[in-house]
């Protein structure tokens, strides 16, 4: 295989390498993975806020239950004192007023307890739903990350193979030819060597003179496109048949 064929092979190897590195970066920065993690973070934040609210209501509920118990005891004591009938009419009237006020406070406490209980039940349902959503996202993320890891291993295995092929093909290109290619590579990258097809330089799509195409077909020297300066490559017979 001549220098020109090896240059074309080198370019194809470098093109494949860049494609693999791009796939590797896409796998490492997978948008779906980022999206799932973002949703999970948002749900966890929402759950933490909800959990704080639940704990606050639980404290309020416990306090009102204690208030209710104390008011119940106070109400019973006042009822017993009233039914004993000790004291004058004014004192009994005062006890009656205290009893009525205590009953009102007790009723208000019971209503608060009912309200807190209903709110707590609703919030616990919301928390359970959030937990379920987070678990589903965790499962999705786990499957996705496992698949991405397999993909990354395959890509990195291919990269190793490409690097070996790159090293091998470099050893088959003489230093002078390689220097010319590398200088142009800084400008054209993976389009440094342009295929000739249908009389065109496929790098700049400009028609080539017949004498230039004839020179390229000889495949014994490097020929540059008169328009863009890329190294011209005429496919061999196997490539033309493919």
Which fold name is given in CATH as the topology of the largest domain?
A: Helix Hairpins
Low-confidence stretches: none
Helix content: over 70%
Residue share in β-strands: under 5%
- Listing every helix as H and every strand as E from the N terminus to the C terminus, the arrangement reads HHHHEEEHEH
Q: Which CATH architecture of the largest domain is right?
A: Orthogonal Bundle
Characterize the biggest β-sheet. Answer: 4 strands, mixed
CA radius of gyration? 42 Å
- Spatially, the strands of the biggest sheet line up as 3-2-1-4
Alpha plus pi helix count: 6
Structural class: mainly alpha
Class of the largest domain, according to the CATH hierarchy?
Mainly Alpha
The N- to C-terminal Cα distance equals 18 Å
Give the structure's gist in a few sentences.
This protein has 242 residues and is mainly alpha-helical. It folds into 2 domains: 3-170, Helix Hairpins, CATH 1.10.287; 175-241, no CATH class. It has helices spanning 3-28, 31-84, 89-170, 175-188, 210-218, 237-241; strands spanning 193-197, 200-201, 206-207, 231-233.
Structural write-up:
The mean pLDDT is 93. Strands 3-2-1-4 form a 4-stranded mixed beta sheet. The two termini are 18 Å apart. The longest helix is centred in the middle third of the chain and has 82 residues. 79% of the residues lie in helices and 5% in strands. By secondary structure, it is mainly alpha-helical. β1 and β2 form a beta hairpin. The protein has 2 domains: 168 residues, Helix Hairpins, CATH 1.10.287.1490; 67 residues, no CATH class.
